[in-house]
Design a protein that fits this description.
- It contains 15 helices and no strands.
- Helix content is 48%, strand content 0%.
- The chain folds into three domains: 12-67, Zn(2)-C6 fungal-type DNA-binding domain (CD2-Gal4); 135-328, no CATH class; 353-378 and 400-464, no CATH class.
- It is mainly α and 464 residues long.
- Helix 9 runs parallel beside helix 11 (292-316) and helix 12 (355-378) crosses helix 13.
């Protein structure tokens, strides 16, 4: 029924729901950046800069061509509901991929917080677009170089993850300002060095000029490293994965040094995740065009993180996440100094003692410890009527050959006897990095060997 005075030939009035829809359509086109990142664009009106672009300080553009949305028959019926809409270009949704196939315009509500359907997969989360990372750090460059010296003197011998002349040169050139992955690594190194200063690690200059600033420096560097690493590891670009793996391994050392075991295993868990998705545990998966220096760095990182994983597992009872049986990575070359590693090869110095020989010996010990873990598991009591008891019984027989423990003990003794005297004597810190690293490695060998002997003792073998 029409009201008095209405013409019967007039088109029927548009329903109120239709009117609301017409108002909401004005906010249905995302800018080019939000469209590319599949994120919410507000206000989403061409000619008006959106909130995200203003926050990032970039130009908000609508240069991509408009496209008609949805199946034509469905669109035609919707357009017929409003006479004015039939003569105008159809609005485009916030992001073409953000709606289910065949979704109708009625589902779009710009006044609600959740605009449209859930975005189609895969989606790049909009909050951490890697290409837009910008350097923003307040620690002085000279302080960073000073912390690098502390790392080299006190930490490098146990975490030799760098070809040092190359790494030092890159930091001196402030390349950390230009590369997100390298920035994360540099900050993690500075955080570990700051922690050592705070804990009173002996260094040549005592007290060190930065000793009183160690705590704020640690906080700043650790936070900066964490801020440079995306919270979602899948957001890390392929070319950045190696640097982020290295940063995570060093951050794990930072937390372990501070007694924060939960964060330590979290960082190492992230490292293991990146290792797995990159196939880093298989050397043949590494890029074929890397130099000898880069190859040696990768070997050191892999086995260094393996040592740390085994140390945490055996010292604190956590599960081990890096299995030696699943790896195919060679030990790093036992060079006297990193300058002996060139782009294409290794310079051997038979008359010099490499601290990496002792470092590799520690890897041997941790591999034996991991095997003993498996063997010790089979010695645990189990009931024959329990599920899995048959397999447990078989594994117990396979992993417990006669004289296994005594043979392992003899092997350890023989390998230790073959080490140079420099790697057997624990000495006081002198301030000379080349000399001090022998004493630090000797201490590490002593502790790890005693740990292995204690585990052998638990399995029932008499050590002495």
């Amino acid at each position: 029924m029409t009201s008095p005075g209405d013409d019967d030939s007039q088109a029927p009035p548009v329903p109120s729901a239709g009117n609301d829809l017409g108002k909401r359509k004005r906010n249905s086109r995302a800018c080019d950046r939000c469209h590319r990142n599949a994120c919410k664009c507000s206000p989403g009106i061409e000619g008006v800069p959106c909130t995200r672009c203003e926050e990032q300080g970039i130009t908000c553009t609508y240069n991509r061509p408009s496209k008609r949305r949805g199946p034509p028959p469905r669109r035609s019926r919707v357009d017929s509901d409003a006479t004015t809409a039939a003569q105008q270009p159809l609005p485009e949704p916030e992001a073409p991929d953000d709606s289910e196939p065949g979704a109708t315009p009625v589902q779009f509500d710009a006044d609600e917080d959740d605009q449209g359907s859930p975005p189609a997969l895969p989606v790049q989360p909009p909050d951490a677009p890697l290409p837009e990372w910008l350097y923003n750090f307040t620690v002085k460059h000279q302080d960073i170089e000073s912390l690098l010296d502390v790392f080299y003197q006190s930490c490098y011998v146990l975490r030799p993850y760098f070809h040092w002349p190359t790494f030092q040169s890159q930091v001196q050139q402030s390349l950390y300002r230009l590369d997100r992955g390298f920035f994360a690594v540099t900050m993690s190194v500075c955080a570990l060095a700051s922690g050592r200063l705070h804990n009173g690690m002996p260094v040549p200059e005592s007290p060190h000029p930065l000793r009183l600033e160690a705590v704020p420096l640690f906080t700043a560097c650790y936070s900066a490293a964490m801020g440079a690493i995306p919270s979602d590891l899948m957001d890390i670009e392929i070319q950045d994965r190696y640097q982020m793996m290295k940063a995570k391994a060093i951050l794990g050392s930072c937390c372990l040094q501070n007694g924060d075991l939960k964060r330590a295993i979290t960082h190492l868990g992230d490292y293991t995740t990146l290792l797995s998705i990159s196939g880093f545990n298989i050397e043949s998966n590494w890029p074929t065009n890397i130099s000898e220096r880069e190859r040696q760095e990768r070997r050191r990182l892999f086995w260094g993180a393996y040592q740390q994983d085994q140390y945490i597992s055996h010292s604190f009872g956590f599960i081990s996440r890096i299995r030696e049986a699943k790896t195919s990575v060679k030990y790093p070359a036992e060079v006297f100094d990193d300058v002996d590693i060139t782009e294409t090869g290794i310079l051997q110095r038979p008359d010099k003692v490499s601290f990496l020989r002792g470092w590799n010996f520690c890897t041997d010990l941790y591999r034996l410890l991991q095997y003993l873990d498996d063997t010790f598991k089979t010695h645990q009591q189990f009931t024959r009527d329990e599920p899995g008891s048959a397999v447990s019984s078989l594994l117990s027989r396979l992993r417990s050959p006669k004289n296994f423990s005594s043979e392992m003990l003899h092997l350890i003794s023989d390998l230790h006897a073959e080490l140079p005297d420099e790697l057997k004597r624990v000495k006081a810190i002198t301030g000379d990095p080349q000399s001090d690293r022998y004493g630090l490695i000797a201490a590490n060998i002593l502790i790890t060997t005693q740990t292995l002997k204690m585990v052998l003792n638990v399995t029932g073998t008499k050590v002495h």
